Amino acid sequence: MITKIIDGRKIAKEITESLKTKVEDFIQKNRITPELAVIIVGEDPASLFYVKMIGKTCEKVSINFKEHNLSKETSPEELLKLINNLNKDKKISGIIVQVPLPKHINQDQIQEVVNPSKDVDCFNPINMGRLALGKPEFLPCTPYAVYELIKRENIEVEGKHTVIIGRSNIVGRPMALILLQKKEHANATITVCHSLTKDLIYFTRQADILIAAVGKPEIIKRDMVKEGAIIIDVGTNEVGGKLVGDVAYDEVLGKVSLVTPVPGGVGPITNVMLMQNTLKAAEKLVN
Ligand code: NAP
What we know:
Strand content: 15-25%
Number of domains: 2
Oligomer: single chain
Low-confidence stretches: none
Number of helices: 10
Order of helices and strands: EHEHEHEHHHEHEHEEEEHEH
Helix content: 40-55%
Structural class: alpha/beta
Largest sheet: 6 strands, parallel
Radius of gyration: 19 Å
Distance between the termini: 50 Å
Number of strands: 11
CATH class of the largest domain: Alpha Beta
Bound molecules: NADP nicotinamide-adenine-dinucleotide phosphate
């Protein structure tokens, strides 16, 4: 079987180009430039790198980017005050509070304070609740990237047995909710697996569509996937200085009908979906 290999960078470029035009139209019509505020507390290297990438993506689509770098000693009160100011600031369309936060700050409490209309990461429980009810305002960026990829590749999902490995609030859980929606490119039949799932292979072998969001290098082997399955690999794991996915990519080639590589699959699309959410938030503010 010939396996189709998805070029996530190409998809990200296409979305970026069309988004840039949409943002420029928005600016011309409303005389306001969408602005994304990112708060980072402390100096976690992975977070600093991620925020730098967000800044670059903002620049590509003409969205203003404002970084708030706070020291790791920042008190919860100071952080709350900043978020409240950004919530009220009419210039700010979207707010991200980069996680992880230092241990003395309650992450759940902070995420609840971000104005749901500016919550472009979709971390506020109100937005997750809306998604759970099938009436989402925003979609969390990583599963949104997978959904966008499914749409663009015209992958048939309706009624298909979709097995998601991982139930985190950032990836696995919202992924299941997105594909459960009564909507085009959704309506899937979903199984969600996690670390306590017994006999994982029993489920993965049944998957028409397999979405891996585990964080364990190449845990999904050739014998675990069905012939002709669609494999979407969200995992990003560093092994010996190289990025690898949760799927043993070389092994599944020739057995499955479609696969997303790591790197170069879902990853590049994620930040672009954040821009999509920021434009949506800006539109809400003017309407
Ligand atoms: P996470 O919070 O650590 O969640 C991992 C999930 O995998 C958990 O639900 C866990 O089960 C499950 N799991 C762990 N070991 C397992 C096993 N042996 N068998 C079955 N399930 C197992 O991670 P995450 O934030 O969701 O991220 C998952 C992966 O996606 C990571 O590699 C991360 O780097 C990557 N990621 C990529 C992007 C992107 O491409 N843009 C964005 C975000 C994350 P329990 O719930 O029982 O612990």
